Amino acid sequence: MSFLRRIAGAGAALVLAASGLVLSQSEALALENGLLRTPPMGFNNWNSTQCKADFNETMIKGIADIFVAKGLKDVGYTYVNIDDCWALPDRDAKGNLVPDPVRFPHGIKALADYVHGKGLKFGIYTSAGTHTCNKAGFPGALGHEQQDANLFASWGVDYLKYDNCNNQGVDAQQRYKAMRDALAKSGRPIAYSICEWGQSKPWTWAAPVGNLWRTTGDISDKWSSMISKAQANRGLAQYAGPGHWNDPDMLEVGNGGMTAAEYRTHFGLWAMMAAPLLIGSDLRKVSADNFDILKNTDVIALDQDPLGKQATVLSANGGLVVYSKVLANGDRAVALSNETAATATISTTASATGIGSAPSYTLKDLWSKAVRSTSGAISASVPSHATVLYRVSAAGGATRYEAESATLSAGGTVDANHAGFSGTGFANAANAVGSYVEWRVTGPASALTFGYANGSTAARPVDIAVDGTVTAAGVAFPPTGAWTTWSTVTRQLSLPAGSHTVRVTATTADGPANLDYLDVTPLAS
């Protein structure tokens, strides 16, 4: 750990002293409504219908029917959400919002009940202003937050998209926190989508406020719009995690304005970035090929990975971009994305992803489903505006367990202020005798290798315990010369098959070194 511990900052963490667990700041401060532990998947009508007459009760019921009939529900799509223009321009005598009786003759509660009857969830829209964004002047929720939240709850709403129009210059945090509090008091769990367009950098403040926040303006169904949203969103990985997601806007897949390769890039990059997968096309008109994109379970699995890590950019040179995403089982997802107008070869290595050393790696192409092996090179000839997606698995090599997946004793944090680490951070345990970092790993194994940095001038000795029994006492982690210089310490052992805990415990008041990962080497075949 750093000699002077960082008490606050982007990588700081809060301690759950009662349990001894530590969560990173973004996790500890996230909105505690228990919802959207993975990014939301579903539908929103706006991109395909806006406020045209075919946006109505019949259409939305038909979308719910298609979710079931076409297998979208089976692969994880859950929310059927309606957007602007569902209400009358005026509230009733009691100040309540009134559904448009032409569009929704049976009301919103009946529609929500229908959606729920399909085993799905229902979402609605309003704005954090006096009116919504449509020029017809539909009423917004500014000054009516609790009344509207209670009404939505009484209708059975499961998801609220809260827009930013006609906000009267009221501070964004004030407006969005007011609705957060109203939803919390409504008596119903309602996922909360902040649609503030990224104007006040909501990623810096919205984790305790909403489950997701728009990082961009509205998307449109063309390559230039879509890729600009990806470019704006891809540098914000540190702010995303279970229950709180960066949102580069809805999917255009199937609306007809892009090529099949561009739509695959769109869907693939959204999945890599752990973005919401909200279908914006009229599913009654979508082609079979586009359904195949939307239902690709290998790509969906990247988006819905329970670790909840947004991909980071390994390299971006002249429009040739390499993304890497850490997955819960130790695999990596790699996207080779060509933003240029010509076919190009894009390359990286397994080592660059931080997956750990292995004699070979398995690459599964998530679009073609082809599987091949590599000694470490990851490369493809990528057509213009296309993206090759690989799931990378170590074949017979060490399994890597990142420090950000470990449990830390009270006072420890997962930090990212010293460059060169694997994954998205490293464990910075407390400066104290007995402070520890613990992983849960799977055997059988023959060795444990710890990635670490020690920028002090003295070794940081630790005891290494497996399943509560010390197997190596006083193991030294020597100085590495700087906190940004990373090295390894390896200990041989015989770890049987099954699940085990591996705990590294400091034996001096300096605490352990900064720990980046634990590699578990399997038994030789």
From TrEMBL:
InterPro entries per the UniProt record, alphabetical: Aldolase_TIM, CBM6, Galactose-bd-like_sf, GH, Glyco_hydro_27, Glyco_hydro_27/36_CS, Glyco_hydro_b, Melibiase_C
Signal peptide annotation: 1-24
GO biological process: carbohydrate metabolic process
PROSITE patterns linked: ALPHA_GALACTOSIDASE (PS00512), CBM6 (PS51175)
Example of a GO MF term: alpha-galactosidase activity
Domain CBM6: 399-521
Gene3D superfamilies in the record: Aldolase class I (3.20.20.70), Galactose-binding domain-like (2.60.120.260), Golgi alpha-mannosidase II (2.60.40.1180)
PANTHER family referenced in this protein's UniProt entry, alphabetically: ALPHA-GALACTOSIDASE MEL1 (PTHR11452:SF75), ALPHA-GALACTOSIDASE/ALPHA-N-ACETYLGALACTOSAMINIDASE (PTHR11452)
Protein family per UniProt: Belongs to the glycosyl hydrolase 27 family.
Protein name as catalogued: Alpha-galactosidase
